[in-house]
Amino acid sequence: MAICVTVNPDGTLATTGQAVSECAGYVMVSGSEYGVYQVVQDMLSVPTPEQAAGWFSGPFILVCTLYVAAKHVGTILSMFDR
User: Fold this and answer.
1) Number of Cβ within a 10 Å radius of residue 77
2) Nearest one of 37, 6, 3 to 19, comparing CA atoms
3) pTM score, two decimals?
4) H-type helices in the chain, by residue range?
5) In which order are the strands placed within the sheet that holds 3-7?
6) Which is it for the CA torsion 17, 21, 26, 29, positive or negative?
7) 13: Cβ–Cβ under 8 A, 6 or more apart, which residues?
8) How far apart are CA 6 and CA 65, in angstroms?
């Protein structure tokens, strides 16, 4: 559960009781909540050029490979029709 805190002049933290959406200080979250936020942030981050190239070339190579395999299987099967 996230809570809203402020920093006191002596360096200690004090809860404010404000809703997290209206927090004027800092929002503290648990470790599991932080893990979820990190996963979401990683999903929404801009991919590196290597990742983007992999996302394009992977499906492209798969489609081309399946086409060539289907073409060869079709050629072999057409020999039995004659």
Assistant:
1) 9
2) 3
3) 0.48
4) 31-44, 49-81
5) 13-15, 3-7, 26-28
6) positive
7) 5, 6, 7, 26, 28
8) 59
